[in-house]
Design goal:
Chain A: This is CRISPR-associated protein Cas5. Chain A: InterPro entries: CRISPR-assoc_prot_Cas5, CRISPR-assoc_prot_Cas5_N. Chain A: Keywords: Antiviral defense. The complex is a heterodimer of chains A (217) and B (313). Chain A is mainly beta and 217 residues long. Chain A has a single domain, classed as Alpha-Beta Plaits, CATH 3.30.70. Helices cover 12% and strands 45% of the residues of chain A. Chain A is built from three helices and 16 strands. In chain A, the strands form five sheets. A four-stranded antiparallel sheet of chain A has the order 4-7-1-8. In chain A, strand 15 and strand 16 form a beta hairpin. Chain B contains six helices and 17 strands. By secondary structure, chain B is of the alpha+beta class. The chains are: A mainly beta (217), B alpha+beta (313).
Chain lengths: 217, 313
């Protein structure tokens, strides 16, 4: 199997909104699996909401530098749906939005040989400008490397892994869409390491990217 | 062939409040972000887009851009409205009968970053005390008025925009049943496309609609500007500007600019005197990279000339 590893940086801010947020828009500390796959699909010039692509690649992730989110107040323009709605009263509603300042991550992608070769070219020469999270959040992709990867058993992981491990932030991330995009499927509980690696309590089957052991979703 | 244009600049401001935060009762604060334990001011990306849009609107006949309706929705006419073309839109379509409602989306070909302060806020700020007299008390002899405190700061802000030259004045079409056939349909002629691109760059030199300008009168136009015309999409140029105190990080600047040039990009640098402590070093570094340092407005003229004369994708 082939894989790609690259560093993903945002030069300004980024926000990965939790789908259930309403008046307080929380952010995940890492881009969800669906977001990373969307970035890859965008680089390949795929159409919006190509849900098939979500099953064609698998993604792993490791935070390199992430600070606590910053909170800001913003205004959201809401439409008045019926004439009796008071437009002036509901012109805009305040909400709180979290964002991350200059976060960076290591991203691992695994897939078929041909798709990975295509993706390698696509990330170097994207079909569209790449952004992540909100539509103005620019991204920079660096240290892009393609390599052969293999499944091995390991007692150490260098990425987000399924399960609960000490010293990690626990979270479920959006994994894929089903039912023509209407149903969002989440991962099991994941452990997010901020110090680069997780010591596992028993051997786990992971993907070997060079010297790193990574779980792909 | 130019596929994308990146601009990244810094601007030194006097005492000002360019974008207010949440505040509280009679306190108007500055929006701030926290980085490595220090607070820095910023102007949100939404605010920067608004300033740029207003600058573009002012530059030409106002009829060339729509005014959003009472629901905040813009016209979505890419052909006739330059702001809808440049900054995209999302217009909702109501559901009819059994059909699902959906949205008509144009992804903005112009990405605008927030303007992020590079100097810690508390070392460069002040709270201004003032009073506001209400209209109905203006003719009375009574002294006083509502007390207001406005937070203000001096800072050096970094900001950037990225222009997707390929998609300006064009619409992306993916054929039915295809997954990624990228076909672009021209909605306006090439001359008008070039004109709209140049309008965005000129707007950077004319930003003026930020808050509190009735009294504070701040100049927020670039003091140091780097532009690149690239034939590949990436935002590397956005990280060329980093500061060590009041000096530009020369090593990083050289590395990033060299990488953009090595990828086939053309880079322009403009600088006003008196901002960085290491101006001579910057000029030498640029000379080493084959770049002549000019004034920011000359740089915009030069890259506009390139857009006018060159073939754009």
């Amino acid at each position: 199997m082939r894989g790609i590893r690259f560093r993903l940086e945002t030069p300004y801010f980024a926000a990965f909104r939790k789908p259930v947020s309403t008046s307080a828009l929380d952010t995940y500390p890492v881009p969800p699996i669906t977001t990373i796959k969307g970035l890859a699909a965008c680089a390949l010039g795929m159409k919006r909401d190509d849900f098939e692509f979500l099953d064609e690649v698998r993604v792993g992730l490791r935070p390199v530098y992430v600070e606590k989110p910053v909170k800001e107040k913003a205004l959201l323009i809401k439409n008045a749906l019926t004439p009796k709605d008071n437009i002036k009263a509901f012109w805009s509603s305040p909400f709180w939005r979290d964002f991350l300042v200059k976060p960076s991550y290591l991203v691992y992608v695994g897939g078929s040989d041909s798709l990975i070769d295509e993706l390698l070219y696509g990330l170097q020469n994207p079909a569209r400008p790449l952004y992540i999270g909100q539509s103005d959040d620019m991204v920079i992709i660096e240290d892009l490397v393609a390599m052969d990867i293999e499944r091995v058993f390991s007692l150490v992981a260098h990425s987000i892994v399924e399960g609960i491990y000490p010293g990690c932030e626990l979270m479920k991330l959006p994994l894929k869409f089903e039912n023509d995009g209407n149903t969002l499927i989440y991962t099991q509980t994941l452990s997010i390491p901020y110090n680069g690696e997780i010591r596992l309590d028993s051997e786990k089957e992971l993907y070997k990217f060079g010297d790193e052991y990574v779980e792909l979703f | 062939m130019i596929k994308s244009i990146n601009l990244s600049w810094v601007s030194q401001t006097s005492l000002t409040n360019l974008n207010s935060g949440e505040g509280g009762s009679n306190y108007i604060d500055v929006k701030k972000y926290k980085w490595q334990g220090e607070e820095y001011p910023y102007v949100s990306g939404q605010a920067m887009r608004f300033y740029l849009k207003e600058a573009i609107r002012r530059q030409e006949d106002y009829k060339l851009s729509c005014i959003p309706n009472d629901k905040g929705e813009s016209c979505g006419d890419v052909e006739n409205c330059q702001l809808c073309d440049l900054f995209g839109f999302m217009t909702t379509k109501k559901k009819e009968g059994r059909s699902k409602g959906n949205a008509m989306i144009r992804v903005s070909p112009v990405k605008v970053s927030p303007a992020i302060g590079l100097l810690p806020f508390d070392e460069n700020s002040n709270v201004d005390f003032l009073t506001r007299k209400k209209r109905d008390t203006l003719n009375t002899t009574e002294l006083g008025g509502d007390i207001v405190n406005v937070e203000m700061g001096m800072n050096i802000y970094k900001c950037g925009i990225a222009i997707d030259v390929v998609r300006i004045g064009r619409e992306e079409v993916i054929a039915e049943g295809e997954r990624r056939t990228l076909k672009l349909t021209d909605l306006i002629n090439e001359e008008e496309r070039k004109n709209r691109i140049i309008n965005v760059m000129n707007a950077v030199l004319n930003i003026a609609d930020y808050s509190k300008q009735a009294r504070l009168l701040t100049d927020f136009t670039p003091d140091f500007l780097i532009c690149s015309a690239q034939n590949v999409y990436n935002h590397k140029l956005q990280k060329a500007i980093e500061m060590n105190d009041i000096a530009l990080n020369i090593q990083r600047f050289k590395e990033v600019i060299k990488e953009v040039i090595d990828e086939g990009g053309t880079v322009y640098v403009g600088m006003r005197a008196g901002l960085f402590e290491n101006e001579e070093e910057i000029i030498d570094a640029c000379r080493g990279l084959g770049i002549e340092v000019k004034q920011p407005n000359e740089v915009i003229k030069e890259i506009s000339k390139k857009v006018t004369e060159d073939v754009i994708s």
